[in-house]
User: Which sequence fits this backbone?
C-alpha cells in the first residue's frame, strides 16, 4: 500500500507511522529522516538543504520533493511506502501526484489521525525530558515521575523543552491548520481520506488504523 499519514502535532504520527509501516511491511518515509540522511551522507540534495538551513531559511518544496522522489524509487519501496511529514502543503501534494503519475503509481489512502486541539496541547505541553538522558520521557498527567521534577531512571532533572511550551504548541497548531490541513480537503476530493480517532492506547489506535485501511483497500 502507498499511504500518506497526516494529523496535528501531538496526534502520535511518528509512533503510528513506525508501527503501521512494520505491520504493512513497507518503508516508513519521514521528512525528518530524509533530511538527516541526505545531510549526513553529504548528497547534493543534502548539501543544498543544509545551505538553506544554515542561512536560517526554509528548505524549498522542490528540494524536499526531490529527496522524497529519490527515496520512493529505492527497491524497498517498490511495493509501497508510508509517507510521514510529506506532503506538508497542497503544492507538495500536487507535486507528489505528478510524480506518482509519472511513475505509473497511485496512492491507496490518506490516513488522517484526529485528536481534539486541547488534548494535543495537553499531550505535548505536559512532556518532561531528563537532562541526563533525553530518552527518559515523563508526563505531568500520563506518566508522572515518583518525585516531581526528578527522573525515575537516573535521578536527573526533568525539564520542559522550549518547543513543548503551550505557546509554542499553539503556534505549531496554527501552522498545521494553515499549511497542512488543506491537503485533507485536497485528498478528500480524490476519495482517498480515511479518518480515525488518535485517542486511546497506542495499540488500539494502531488496530483502528489497520482496520480502516483494510476496509478502504477492500472497497477498491
Assistant:
Amino acid at each position: 500500500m502507498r499511504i500518506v499519514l497526516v494529523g496535528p502535532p501531538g496526534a502520535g504520527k511518528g509512533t503510528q507511522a513506525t508501527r503501521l509501516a512494520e505491520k504493512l511491511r513497507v518503508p516508513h518515509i519521514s521528512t525528518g529522516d530524509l533530511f538527516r540522511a541526505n545531510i549526513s551522507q553529504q548528497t547534493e540534495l543534502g548539501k543544498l538543504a543544509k545551505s538553506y538551513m544554515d542561512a536560517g531559511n526554509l528548505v524549498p518544496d522542490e528540494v524536499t520533493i526531490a529527496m522524497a522522489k529519490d527515496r520512493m524509487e529505492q527497491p524497498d519501496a517498490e511495493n509501497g511506502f508510508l509517507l510521514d511529514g510529506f506532503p506538508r502543503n497542497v503544492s507538495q501534494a500536487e507535486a507528489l501526484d505528478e510524480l506518482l503519475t509519472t511513475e505509473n503509481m497511485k496512492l491507496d489512502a490518506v490516513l488522517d489521525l484526529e485528536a481534539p486541539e486541547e488534548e494535543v496541547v495537553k499531550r505535548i505541553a505536559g512532556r518532561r525530558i531528563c537532562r541526563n538522558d533525553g530518552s527518559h520521557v515523563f508526563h505531568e498527567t500520563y506518566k508522572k515521575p515518583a518525585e516531581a521534577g526528578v527522573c525515575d531512571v537516573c535521578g536527573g532533572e526533568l525539564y520542559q523543552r522550549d518547543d513543548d511550551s503551550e505557546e509554542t504548541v499553539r503556534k505549531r497548531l496554527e501552522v498545521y491548520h494553515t499549511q497542512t490541513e488543506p491537503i485533507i480537503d485536497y485528498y478528500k476530493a480524490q476519495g482517498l481520506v480515511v479518518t480515525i480517532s488518535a485517542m486511546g492506547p497506542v495499540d488500539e489506535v494502531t488496530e483502528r488504523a489497520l482496520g480502516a485501511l483494510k476496509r478502504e483497500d477492500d472497497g477498491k
Observations:
- The domain at 2-218 is CATH 3.40.50.300 (Rossmann fold).
- The radius of gyration is 18 Å.
- The CA atoms of residues 87 and 93 lie 5 Å apart.
